[in-house]
Specification:
It is globular and about 45 Å long. The chain contains six helices and six strands. With 174 residues, it is α/β, with parallel strands linked by helices. The longest helix is centred in the last third of the chain and has 12 residues. It has one domain: Rossmann fold. It binds guanosine-5'-diphosphate and magnesium ion.
């Protein structure tokens, strides 16, 4: 068994839950307080994948980059995304304008890393009635974009689909 490391980024509007998703995934914790991110925070987590039909298990260390939400961001996006093999693009189901920005965020990321994989996280699903969630998910599938693996309804608060978004990326990166 061997371990490899890959960089991934979280990207999306301010306040959608990027830092909270990472915290839930890495530390299994959630806080209602705003966890302001100053500059860039880098977290690491080891994930495993056993490919079907193969005996050898492969461990992957995800190096997760979290950046503070800022309008000045575009200028530094190039540096931040450099060398990233994947991204989680995050929107907030309680703030429709953050969902409308998803496509632009995807383009910004792909401009720097045209061959990277992306998962889309529609976060704060605990705040919206279940009957609306599937409708929203269908609206943000981005099936025209080959790099997008899937769109997930997530909650950093309950943990819903949090492991799944990172595992989906990790499985593709191994
Ligand atoms: P960021 O700016 O994208 O990093 O957003 P944060 O992770 O700092 O979250 C912004 C606010 O939304 C904080 O008050 C969080 O507690 C809250 N929040 C984040 N994710 C969720 C979630 O899934 N459900 C709920 N109810 N609140 C969330
Ligand atoms: Mg943050």
């Amino acid at each position: 068994m061997s371990t490899i490391s890959k960089k991934i980024c979280l990207f999306g509007d301010f306040g959608v839950g990027k830092t909270s998703l990472i915290r839930q995934f890495v530390e299994c914790q959630f806080s209602d307080e705003y966890l302001s991110t100053v500059g860039v925070k880098i977290s690491r987590k080891l994930v495993s994948s056993s490919k079907e039909g193969l005996d050898n298990r492969q461990d992957l260390q995800l190096i997760i980059w979290d950046i503070e939400g800022s309008n000045k961001f575009k200028a530094v996006a190039q540096n931040y995304f450099q060398g990233s093999k994947g991204a989680v693009i995050v929107g907030d189901v309680t703030q429709p304008e953050t969902l409308n920005h998803l496509r632009e965020h995807i383009q910004t990321f792909l401009t720097v890393n045209p061959k990277s994989y992306i998962v889309v996280a529609l976060n704060k699903s605990d705040m919206i009635a279940a009957e609306y969630l599937e409708k929203i998910r269908k609206m943000y599938q981005f099936t025209d974009q080959a790099n997008i693996l899937d769109t997930y309804i997530t909650s950093a608060k309950t943990g819903n689909n949090v492991n799944e978004i990172f595992q989906a990326l990790a499985t593709r990166l191994i």
